[in-house]
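User: Hi! I have a protein structure encoded as tokens and I'd like to know what sequence might fold into it. I'm fairly new to this, so please keep things simple.
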């Protein structure tokens, strides 16, 4: 199966997908793409704008995973913008509507299976998602219930996250390791979503 992995990061969602698929990963930052490629050398790595790449290449794939930027939708960031003062206060942002652009586009143009992932938003989603762990998922297939533990990543140091997600970043530099690890989708959840897309999980379904 040909898979497109957009906004790939270091590949948390992809980690347990195995090597039986033809995977193209798209990541905007070269230093993060280099880490992904180090972990998954058989994947095709494209350093590009994922939003634009999707529009130009979507018809080439059987399954598309997209994780558009989440800060402008985040409850935590919104809380900090409203309540912190001074230097530590993040700026207020309009919600980034590329998230919904991709959902609507995939829903109406793409013939394969797809999943768009983001954080649980501080507002009522404009399109109803599945909710699982700390994520919202929009898909064109049913997501089954899973017994995965709650994914609490708000506290912890780099070594905690490395252990949790089984990534060793000790030989890498030039990136905020805690940030890229916190951005990872739990590998077991990434596998669960792909298995649901492939129809491999036959359990009770989540409700929208």
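Assistant: Happy to help. Inverse folding works backwards from shape to sequence: for each of the 208 positions I chose a residue that suits the local structure. Here it is:
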């Amino acid at each position: 199966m040909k898979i497109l992995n957009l906004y790939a990061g270091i590949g948390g969602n992809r980690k347990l997908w195995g090597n039986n698929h033809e995977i193209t990963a798209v990541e905007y930052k070269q230093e993060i793409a280099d880490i992904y490629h180090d972990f998954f050398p058989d994947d095709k790595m494209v350093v590009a704008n994922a939003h634009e790449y999707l529009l130009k290449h979507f018809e080439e794939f059987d399954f598309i995973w997209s994780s558009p930027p989440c800060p402008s939708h985040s409850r935590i960031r919104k809380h900090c913008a409203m309540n912190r003062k001074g230097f530590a206060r993040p700026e207020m942002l309009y919600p980034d509507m590329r998230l919904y652009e991709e959902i609507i586009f995939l829903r109406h143009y793409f013939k394969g299976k797809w999943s768009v992932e983001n954080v649980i938003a501080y507002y009522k989603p404009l399109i109803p998602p599945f909710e699982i762990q700390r994520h919202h998922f929009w898909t064109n297939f049913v997501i089954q219930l899973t017994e995965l533990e709650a994914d609490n990543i708000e506290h912890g140091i780099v070594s905690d996250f490395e252990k949790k997600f089984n990534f060793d970043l000790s030989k890498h530099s030039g990136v905020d390791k805690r940030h890229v690890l916190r951005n990872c989708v739990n590998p077991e959840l990434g596998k669960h979503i792909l298995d649901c897309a492939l129809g491999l999980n036959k359990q009770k379904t989540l409700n929208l």
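A useful reference point when you look it over: Residues 98-109 form the longest helix (12 residues). Feel free to ask if any position seems puzzling.
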